[in-house]
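Changelog-linked ticket: S-adenosylmethionine example.
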Amino acid sequence: MHKTPLPRLDLSEETLRTRLLPYCRLRPGQIWDDPRGRHRVACLDATDATAVAALMGRDRAELAIHDPPYNLVAFAERELAEYIAWCGRWIDVTLDALADDASLYVWLGADQRNGFQPLPDFMMLMRAKPMRARSFITMRNQRGYGTARNWMAVRQELLYYTRGNPIFDVRAEYTDIPKILRGYYKSVDGKVTENLERGKSETIRAGNVWVDIQQVFYRLDENVSGCYAQKPLKAIARILAASSAPDGLVLDLFAHSGTTLLAAELAGRRCRSADLDPVFCEIAIRRLEHQRATGRLGWQHGHAFETEGF
Ligand SMILES: C[S@@+](CC[C@H](N)C(=O)[O-])C[C@H]1O[C@@H](n2cnc3c(N)ncnc32)[C@H](O)[C@@H]1O
């Protein structure tokens, strides 16, 4: 087994990036076209309306899944107001790239050591945008950071917005978790029943608290070393199943390890994805190619640049 993971690229020394760059096929402004005609990946700034328009061409996405840097966690600290203004710019760009009937999901952090930022200000920003707030989902992150003096931070926030009348397939909600708790009693045709009798399904709905998704870590096949903010494929698969149609078009402007791109491939959706950083664009494309060639979801202990001897 290959056991030489790439170090976290945001924390590693600049020389590693400099050595990786020659092996990255995209430069800023360039677009990779999938030879199978399913997907496109661009190296661009998500706030650049012209570059995103070039990525979209005449197409409009029915779903956007965005996972921007969370300001205070993995990136250099910016002023909150500046961060929110930046979010407003890529939201506007996204609105132009979406169909009239569309869904938007945004992963965001809420730092409990710093006024829960940036979540509340982002919610306020979205109230001024032409999208309807639909759900505030929490995914349980099993690798939370803990302290004996506070509740362990295990949540990952996911906001869901829509405009028009987009698809929502409720079947995507059902988990593998059996119903074990009784719910409330209700009278149906004069007979008092409780919810275990009334429900059609044996398992519970995920609802807006997702507790059944394993956080990505190095033991998982889907692990992509070098990436520090990878989302689980299962979470993206659930969003795709709920809010996109087979063969539908999905947009993700913050590709990183390419989770949305790969989940779209696996679910039979088409994806337009992008990242500012040519190294993450390359990792996302290689992850898709690697899956097509081997069936693997990531590199577990290895990494995307193994063939170059890193
Ligand atoms: C939180 S990560 C996304 C993680 C991704 N969902 C995954 O599962 O791998 C954020 C990504 O956004 C990229 N990024 C930061 N600023 C950007 C910008 N202005 N435009 C496009 N991408 C940007 C970073 O390079 C990073 O790869």
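Closing comment: Example verified and attached. The pocket of S-adenosylmethionine is lined by residues 45-47, 67, 69, 227, 229-231, 253-254, 256-257, 259, 274-277, 280 (CB under 6 Å). The chain is about 25% helix and 30% strand.
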